[in-house]
Design brief:
With about 130 residues, the chain is α/β, with parallel strands linked by helices. It has a single domain (about 5-125), classed as 3-Layer(aba) Sandwich (Rossmann fold). It is built from six helices and six strands; from the N terminus they run E-H-H-E-H-H-E-H-H-E-E-E. The strands form two sheets. It has a four-stranded mixed beta sheet. The protein has a two-stranded parallel sheet with strand order 2-3. The longest helix has 14 residues, at about 55-65. It is globular, with a radius of gyration of 14 Å. The two termini are about 25 Å apart.
Length: about 130
């Protein structure tokens, strides 16, 4: 069974308290995939918004990397992402995450920020894990 792919926002909820943090932890406990871009976006938020040091952010991301396989960014992801961005109206960053998930063979992309329920290319369903 193909693994799930996680958007940055799901990872960042691990830094909060409450139901969203619990839901994110539950999903990530099962493992899955993220891209290098997700690592980079998470790093920026850890340092700028959460006020972590580089070391603290690195330790946090090390824990994420222990749970999730990391998909490298490739020219193919870039090319597919450009096409998806144009076709579906994704932002550049979202298009690259969707492309990484598609090319990795994932069937689910967990994201709070993208259109819940959208089926991309007939293969990848975007799901908001926090929708009621």
């Amino acid at each position: 069974m193909p693994a799930d792919f996680f958007d940055t926002n799901v990872i960042l909820y691990l830094l909060d308290d409450g139901a969203k943090a619990d839901r994110a932890a539950g999903l990530l406990a099962g493992g899955g995939l993220i891209s290098v871009q997700v690592l980079n976006e998470t790093l920026v938020n850890c340092i700028r918004k959460a006020g972590m040091s580089w070391q603290e952010a690195g330790d946090f991301l090390g824990g994420i990397r222990a749970l999730c396989e990391v998909v490298d960014l490739t020219p193919a992801i870039h090319d597919v992402g450009r096409a998806l961005g144009e076709r579906y109206g994704f932002s550049v960053y979202d298009a690259m995450i969707v492309a990484a998930a598609l090319l990795a063979g994932c069937e689910r992309l967990w994201s709070e920020d993208m259109q819940d329920g959208l089926l991309v290319e007939g293969r990848l369903r975007i799901i908001n894990p926090f929708a009621e």
